[in-house]
Description:
Order of helices and strands: EEEEHEHH
Number of strands: 5
Structural class: alpha+beta
CATH superfamily: Gcn5-related N-acetyltransferase (GNAT)
CATH topology: Aminopeptidase
CATH architecture: 3-Layer(aba) Sandwich
Oligomer: single chain
Strand content: 35-45%
Distance between the termini: 35 Å
Strand order of the largest sheet: 1-2-3-4-5
Radius of gyration: 12 Å
Number of domains: 1
Number of helices: 3
Amino acid sequence: xxxxxxxxxxxxxxxxxxxxxxxxxxxxxxxxxxxxxxxxxxxxxxxxxxxxxxxxxxxxxxxxxxxxxxxxxxxxxxxxxxxxxxxxxxx
Length: 91
């Protein structure tokens, strides 16, 4: 699996085929909002979505930003991981 970064999304590809994607946008100067995570049905349950979330978390860390997960899947994966959880924007 290969992860590619575009302006406001990461895609997961296998053999040249997009198998998943996560979209996000910057809100102000301090936050990245994850608004959607999608993985094709035959690839679900194989860690593709989690890897996409990890890439957004790493981007936020590198830019010293917090994460606002509006996507329920991304929120779940972030809250499951102690390292990811500290990246959440506190309300």
